[in-house]
Amino acid sequence: MSRTTTEGASTSKARTRLLNTAARIFYTEGIHSVGIDRIIAEAQVTRATLYRHFAGKEQLVLAYLEQADQAIRGQVAAAVADNPAPADQVRAIATAIADTIKSSGFRGCAFLNAAAEYHDPAHPVHQAVLAHRQWFLDTVTHLLAQAGCTPADAAARHFAMLRDGAMAAGCLFDPGLITQTFLDGVEDMLKLRGASSAQA
């Protein structure tokens, strides 16, 4: 392995360690309460290393949200790939959300949490939250339209509100009860909006 390759691998590992450390702390403790020095210390890197990869804390926060966005996109893609019927795809997405809520260390929705800390609609972090939510809403709207729900945009907003409520309550009350209520709500919504029992 050449020196350049070795240095590139080392740089990549340092960035990954920084991002994973920041993501863990931001998610469990909040964003504004965490300083750069804490992240540097826990990631075991130098300040120069951090600024080599991220222009500042804001860039690190945006990278954290991008990582969360990609994870959710992967979760949704897997749910869609594993189920041929659009209504079942929506159910699978709901089940994946329920599983997240019941997982160890769940602290709510990373995007709702970030939005609560960044109120200015023009702020890049707030914009990243809105972009993620628009993608999610567009994705669910498309699936619900394919499932025969009418109007699909209203059904998608219904689904998103059920999800938001479950995410908010899931770290405050019994996650088993919350997720069952959420899944029941999704099923009721599908029936109310006229989802077909099966789609090709």
From TrEMBL:
Keywords: DNA-binding, Transcription, Transcription regulation. The keyword Transcription applies. Gene3D superfamilies: Tetracycline Repressor, domain 2. Signal peptide: none annotated. Residues 12-72 form the HTH tetR-type domain. The keyword rRNA-binding does not apply. Residues 35-54 bind DNA. It comes from the Bacteria. SUPFAM superfamilies: Homeodomain-like, Tetracyclin repressor-like, C-terminal domain. This is TetR/AcrR family transcriptional regulator.
